Amino acid sequence: MSRTRPVIAIDGPVGAGKSTVARALARKLGFAYVNTGAMYRAVAIAARAAGIDPDSPALAADLERLLGRIRIAFDGERIALDGRDVSGEIGDPAIGDLASRLSTIGVVRERMRELQRAAGRDGGVVMEGRDIGTAIFPDAEAKFFLTADVNVRAARRHAELAAKGAPAAFEDVREQLLERDRRDRERALAPLRPAPDAIEIDSTASGVDAVVERMRRRIEELTRAV
Ligand code: DC
């Protein structure tokens, strides 16, 4: 292991509060923040623009060609596709859904793994996603698995969409969230699940500050021990 600073992995299902917590934790530690879901979403934007059919039997080959010619760059909150800032577009729920579908394909996961491992190579990073502690950085110095009650998660997504000016019915948001969770958990490649050594935190009844502080203390203990 060549890095001198730790990698912090935060995984969990949709709406568990990963982004808010990861961002705040990164700020507190003075670490970089990497949102890996945004990368899958950028692939989905590129696939949609290229007219790729997610139901096509040639999907893996189509995606391989696509990945060979697109360029994804990211820096904190911003993500760019072929030099164009797509940070605003990635929040579209249809893109989240397509990202989840495309993320089941091996060539997509392989490319994302390369990008993510490169981003965390030197450590000093808080990386959030679904498989960071299990597949991307199984040797991360600290791993957290963030969960929350499904109704609370759906209510958060529902409020986020309304705030973005794209309101949706609560029941629809809840259904879509459950469907995406099911797909992310049941896929064959790097499914969403806690790493055996992950610390599970239920954020249902906790505020962001309390969760972040709990993580910070745990990181201090873990990194003191190495
Ligand atoms: O975190 P998010 O909702 O922006 O992620 C969108 C989709 O991307 C998610 O439903 C599954 C996929 N994803 C993944 O497979 N692995 C990751 N590390 C992050 C996201």
Notable characteristics:
226 residues, alpha/beta, Rossmann fold, 5-stranded parallel β-sheet, 3-stranded antiparallel β-sheet, 8 strands, globular, binds 2'-deoxycytidine-5'-monophosphate
Please give the structural blueprint.
Elements lengths: L6 E5 L6 H12 L2 E4 H14 L9 H11 L2 E4 L2 E4 L2 E2 L7 H10 L3 H15 L4 E5 L2 H5 L5 E6 L2 H14 L6 H17 L12 E4 L5 H17 L2
Parallel strand pairs: 1-6, 1-7, 2-6, 7-8
Antiparallel strand pairs: 3-4, 4-5
This protein binds 2'-deoxycytidine-5'-monophosphate (DC).
The structural class is alpha/beta
Low confidence ranges: none
Distance between the ends: 12 Å
Radius of gyration: 17 Å
Share of helix among residues?
40-55%
CATH architecture: 3-Layer(aba) Sandwich
Bound molecules: 2'-deoxycytidine-5'-monophosphate
CATH topology: Rossmann fold
Question: What does this entry show, briefly?
Answer:
The chain is of the alpha/beta class and 226 residues long. The protein contains nine helices and eight strands.
What does this structure look like?
- This protein has 226 residues and is an alpha/beta fold.
- The protein contains nine helices and eight strands.
- It has a single domain, classed as P-loop containing nucleotide triphosphate hydrolases (Rossmann fold, 3-Layer(aba) Sandwich), CATH 3.40.50.300.
- β4 and β5 form a beta hairpin.
- The longest helix is centred in the last third of the chain and has 17 residues.
- It is globular.
- It binds 2'-deoxycytidine-5'-monophosphate (DC).
- 2'-deoxycytidine-5'-monophosphate binds next to α2, α4 and α8.
